[in-house]
Amino acid sequence: MATNIDRVLYVRLPCNPIFPIGVVYLADHLHKLFPDIQQRIFDLGAIPPLDFNGALDECVDEFQPQLLVFSWRDIQIYAPVGGRGGNPLQNAFEFYYATNPFVKLRGALGGLRLAGSYYGELWRNQGLIRRGLKRARRYHPEARVVVGGGAVSVFYEQLGRSLPKGSIISVGEGEALLEKLLRGQEFQDERCYIVGETQPRERLIHETPAPIEKSACNYDYIASIWNQFNYYFLDQDFYLGVQTKRGCPHNCCYCVYTVIEGKQVRINPADEVVAEMRQLYRRGIRNFWFTDAQFIPARRYIQDAIELLQKILDSGMDDIHWAAYIRADNLNPQLCDLMVKTGMNYFEIGITSGSQELVRKMRMGYNLRVVLENCRDLKAAGFNDLVSVNYSFNVIDETYETIRQTIAYHRELEAIFGRDKVEPAIFFIGLQPHTHLEDYALEKEVLKPNYNPMSLMPWTARKLLWNPEPLGSFFGEVCLEAWQRNGNDFGREVMDILEERLGRADLEEALSAPMVDASPTPSKSLVTTSG
């Protein structure tokens, strides 16, 4: 069945200035399939807030789309760094744990500002979607709207209650859905549902994404349909996203990536990735961020990473830098050497805990001893730049002893790279839907089955900001002291205070864990460990 859709407008809803790689890849994919369809990208992230409505109206009036595709990236309730109206984590901890009434009041006022900003953004984005659709229907009464993006994929069930009737809510990747829409084909077998007409299938987010192999993005075409393209080229320190694969095979208990992107890892051909990078390189870009959930998700993908980095090295782009989120247990000396030679100058590892016992309980699949060995190889290869290590304290079965083990592990990373090169990023998990941690919280009756994961009410927020007792108050005190000492170096201060209060375990204790079922619950959802 043919469709009369020949004008598609992509609207990236307001968020931090992060390159909108999702809509760029969608537009590129559809152009390769439907070269005659007109497309436009409009990025509200590059527009001043007071101009959102007027700029959207002007864009719709000029382009007159028949299909609007809204990309909603962030509904980030909690964060360890500055965000809406200040530092959300600090506001929460001051309100929940401070003993000084003035500090508690400051936290409460900060929390109110945060809540006001949070709900304001929700209402604003919903209003922009309605506004854009209403405006488009002045020109095409049959105009439709698709809403997707990271935030929508996590909260797709809740957002369906507040978006316009007939909106198509897309979960995860949108290429196959949009392709069927433009072909006039039945599309509801994709990961989506229609507001007011259908209900999301049970476990919709867990369905397998379409196996699409990606080719190099055509940035000449993207520049022709995106008036704000050069906005992201003005700052030479800006890292532009390039995707080398999709999917994550792991089962980390708190992470939603593995369900959004699927467990099947789909590698983009190395030649296509390099061709895409070269297009950006010719436009002056020298900093790249590999946007994969994990740059090297498992050992069987080491050779793919080696092939890619070797081709980058052979391409002559010898003055670039790149960064990524990396599972450091999947490195080897050859890969370490290529990482340094190709310009890796920053990477993140999310070990969550420096205790092998807790890593196993959280289903992370890490061998912490191997991580240290590989970090030594990376240092030996000449890596002298920054590594950010993510720690999420108090997730499952944390004790004073496992904290001491984490301190020992962190000090060993500092011994390898240098204290000034290892940045501990201290997270407290914002519990999200569709994760094993949510199953655990429901089973333990921390949450009720009908809870609202988008609520910022204090009685819900305290449960979703995962810092349970008996150690919750202890971590609250430590974090408050760290902010008071030096809020600009919060992570290192937290580690120092923990060591002052608890001491440090022997490193061998951190690297050892009993080879028995360490699952915190008999539930099947948390028994099987990741390989």
TrEMBL record:
The keyword Iron-sulfur applies. SMART domains: Elp3. Keywords: Iron, Iron-sulfur, Metal-binding, S-adenosyl-L-methionine. It comes from the Bacteria. Residues 232-468 form the Radical SAM core domain. It holds the Pfam family Radical_SAM. Signal peptide: none annotated. PANTHER family: ANAEROBIC MAGNESIUM-PROTOPORPHYRIN IX MONOMETHYL ESTER CYCLASE-RELATED, SLR0320 PROTEIN. This is B12-binding domain-containing radical SAM protein. The lineage of its organism: Bacteria, Bacillati, Cyanobacteriota, Cyanophyceae, Oscillatoriophycideae.
